[in-house]
Amino acid sequence: MTTATSTEQEHDLDLERGCYVYGVVPFGDELVPPGMTGLGEAPVRLVRYDDIAAVVSDVTPDRPLGRATDLVAHSEVLDALAGLTTVVPVHFGSVLADEDSVVQDVLAPGREEFADLLAELEGRVQLNLRATYVEDAVLAEVVAADPQVAALRARTRDLPEDESYGERVRLGELVARALEHKREEDTAVLMDAVTPRVAAWVERGGGGGIDHVVDVALLVDTANLASFEEFLEGLAEAVHERIRLRLVGPVAPYDFVGGAGWA
Amino acid sequence: MAVATQGTARNYLQRAPSPSGLADVIEIILDKGIVIDAYVRVSLVGIELLTIDARIVIASVDTYLRFAEATNRLDLYEKGKDLGEFIGDMQEGGASKKTSGAVKGVKRAISGGGDDEERRPARKSSSRRRSTEDA
Lengths: 263, 135
Hints:
The structure holds 2 protein chains of 2 kinds. Chain A is α+β, with helices and mostly antiparallel strands. Helices cover 40% and strands 23% of the residues of chain A.
């Protein structure tokens, strides 16, 4: 496996202490609950600029961040804040030199964009919905629908692999293609049912398993949360013989802050 | 998969109110969030490798063999139905009142009802940023 999509590791070793940035919120007194801690159990605090604030904690960059506990801490701080206010999550692992730098390099130049994003996200939370196939059910559909698949399956089933290699590859290719087609159809049906009920949605990367159908981030009005979950419960029940639905959240709106795009 | 078998429990929807475990967390936060001009930007080389590995589907002979194997492993022939039929079944069958209310909503959405033009385009959040970062 290559490292093609990993970013460069940049460590400024001169930095003895840094300011780890979790996200940006509308400024508010007493917004951060007393005792809230982040990476390395350091206290979480706000750095204010005008009517927005960065959520930060001190970090010692003498060790590489990115341990399991660091990731979990990042996620817990942001999700907890998302339950209290509107938050624009910042990419994991972003450390600035000090509070001045947080203001001058992030908050001041980004003030308008942060304010716009915060306004757009206000009163909304993210839910992650994943649909996966009940594998045996859909494979049985594929076998039943395509005589060629059924024939290949019957022929290769009890043969040793090396005697049926070519036919097995052909069988797998047909099944993969059929599943891809099903996936598109089922995704369209699910999304047509779900998306009119959400403020915005983004299809996420998703898994590559046989059972993968679709993985989406949904931005939902907090006021509609309960009825939306009730709706999804009904949808899950309606499709449960061949599709499983898993819902995670509410979480911070990680997938809905891409528009501002200053990289 | 949880199946509602008793009482009024209807837990067909697998529900995690917050990310459960590191795998969830990685999946949710990895490569997400606004990219700021930071002095230190940590990359998660090791963790990314695992995740990427799990995500990639390579249209290769190996993949096809995996699909073939899964198909050969099947014991049962079941008559396939499409999603619409299932939803139809639910309406005619013994679904609870609450459920059929929800399912009618699904049905309406599926059968058109002018929803097509409301379908919003997916807001791409990470792909462009990722390519910028990598450049």
